[in-house]
Amino acid sequence: MNDSDVTALAAGVQAGERRALAQAITLVESTHPHDRPRAEALLTTLMPHTGQAIRLGISGAPGVGKSTFIEALGLYLLSLGQRLAVLAVDPSSQRTGGSIMGDKTRMELLSRELAAFIRPSPSGGNLGGVASRTRESLLLCEAAGYDVVIVETVGVGQSETAVAGMVDCFLLLQLPNAGDELQALKKGVVELADLVVVNKADISPTAAALAKSQFELALHLLQPVSAHWSPPVLTCSALHQQGLTAVWDTVMRHRAAITDGGDLPAKRARQAVDWLWALVNEQLRQDFRRHPAVAEALPRISDAVTRGDLSPTVACRQLRALYRPGE
Ligand code: GDP
To answer: Is the CB of residue 243 below 6 angstroms from any atom belonging to ligand 1?
Structure first.
């Protein structure tokens, strides 16, 4: 692919062509170093056309009903005339070789719709790398004119934090199980939520109502994330398409609250700068470890730190003394 191909690809993405978008995502997902300059040229061309979508993060444990929920919500959004893209961050896909979320039968009805674009998680690399590629794909979906971009993740590792760091509204999907709110609190994910939704309310409305009030209590104990918004708790049944209108209305209310309060541009700006520093940190760390003199001395110095013979501060100074950027 040469420069004119990149220009043509950018034009295809902007025209909303699904094949061009899929190709563009494959390019930004590529881990081949020779693809990077073209991926960056593409992103730079499309940056001015990004930022218009509603970015919604959805997280929850395997089996909570994420794909059922996203399919039902997605079909509802399509009925409102919206175009929807669904992306995923699944850090399990490179550890086990198989994705927790990625099998092909997920969201079968939604995937048949022309106004919906569904892309499984990129695989390979660490969580930071996977999340970074999903962020770039999110920008591409915006340039392609999607009104709503959903980024889905399973609650493994730090993936919730990564997804909360790239969306405007973070929705936590939960089961009506006693004690689940304590798990979520312990893991620190409730703090990230702009909205908690208790799914499978059809199984036991009483259990769902109880879980709702327990989450409300848990959220009440936490500091409000924004002066303009206190995270509400809703119940729904994704399977029976009940309660989804209320969920979407709440997402829109959240949007209005953070837009009117002026938080949205500030939030996105903060997320972009955080992303920049995460990339700089990661890149510098890699450069440092790959530097020949550092790489040569690292096992010996690291062993000395492990044995307790050398203080980490002194070890760090010794390694830094060996590091000559650009070598
Ligand atoms: P995911 O792993 O979080 O994506 O969960 P799935 O969407 O695959 O759902 C897991 C199981 O829960 C499936 O058998 C769904 O049919 C079922 N399920 C999802 N939502 C509901 C619901 O609202 N009510 C009931 N009774 N079952 C549901």
So the answer is: no
